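User: For my dataset I need records formatted as: sequence, then structure tokens, nothing else. Please produce one.
Assistant:
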Amino acid sequence: MASSLTKDSASTAGGKTFFGHPRGLATLFMTEMWERFSYYGMRALLPLYLIAPGGLDMNPATATAIYSVYLSLVYLLALPGGWFGDRVWGPRKTVAVAGAVIMVGHLTLALPSDGTFFAGLGLVAIGSGLLKSNISTMVGHLYDGPDDPRRDGGFTIFYMGINMGAFAAPLIIGTVGESVNWHLGFALAALGMGIGLLQFMIGTRHLNPRSLVVPKPLSADERSATLRKSMIWLGVAAVFYIVTVATGVYTLNWLLVPITLAGLVIPVTVLVRIKRDKELSATEQSKMSGYIWFFVAAAIFWMIYDQGGSTLAIFAESSAENSVFGWGFPVSWYQSVNPVLIMALAPVFAAFWLALNRRGKEPSTIVKFSSGLVLVGASFFVFLMPLTIAGDGHKAAAMWLVAIYFIQTVAELTLSPVGLSVTTKMAPAKYAGQMMGVWFLAVTAGDCTTGLLSLAGVELNGTGVVALEATLAVSAGIAIFLYRGKVKQLMGNVK
């Protein structure tokens, strides 16, 4: 990306700026871009490597389960990742450690040894969870509070960094991994994170000093109690798995099933704990009741949406004609369709909502949310067409898959920003800092549902299952729309 630094005395007291924003935004933009480059590159390769004869040669169901569990862990670990930033290390140190952990994880994946593969996957998930919440916190630190007029624009630029990394990764890492060597592809992911970490360390002088501060440090007693509890749980897990391995009963499901179940139980537990908190006012209780509607619907949305990297990719590998006008391309390139569409359509959607708002015709939060669900369901109804074509013994055209990704991107732009916004608006004051982590738990729940179905032997590429998922999403969208009056009443003054 070309440099866009200019002099702007009004912005940073005569210092350099980044598109008119604080110079530290460039550091965080590049860190996030390279982290997403490494993450999405590895993610594009993961299901293909798992099923490849030259990879782990697993069946599609197991590969989908592993992929889904991995995604769910990334979002599940964002909650303790934010806690570490708030209570232990502070955002800046947490991001630095996270980058190092991610890089080591990718290097571990790059080793030509199947025995270290899952350790590498775990390290990447832990690092991503640590980084996810804290780097966004540091973007907020660059501005003079929530009323700074540059704040929303800064997050928009930061969001573009995410999609730039996500777009380039499958094209580069995917091509090398599929066409040259799987482990070399994973090594490129490590290189990308290494570049991101290096420029982060060099550019930390441009960040707000607040990013070094631990907002709510643990007391000595809290630190001791947390360490003791962590060691107890770690010890229990270690003993359990040592026994299963020693007795010869261990299989991969002994690892996948507990994580999958935890990914379903933890979101429910967190929501119930917040909902039953007697310190919440009646208004806050009502808003939480309304929020549960959005949470469940979001879990259904992400259950379908995230199969774009597993179910659809595995289908493309075996049953699609991966070429355009006779020019073939790697299967991993499909994962670049969504980010490039996001970059193209996000400004269009922003302008469209603004134009409708000026006319007093902008759809409500509930209508946008229900539309996103209906659209993601419609994408799987479209998926039935290439499935039928493949079922007749023919290869499905690549444009069928592009059409599915296009519909899902429109659905994402309709639902995801609204979900983030409504989460902050409906959060009880006591849990204001934690609710973004709660929103990520909807992704965890959706992905864990997919993982559980795969572990149960459900063929997710079957027309019956795809039709059922599509019907579920459309029905959920219609239900929210039909009950919008009740949901609106629960939301109180949230528009």
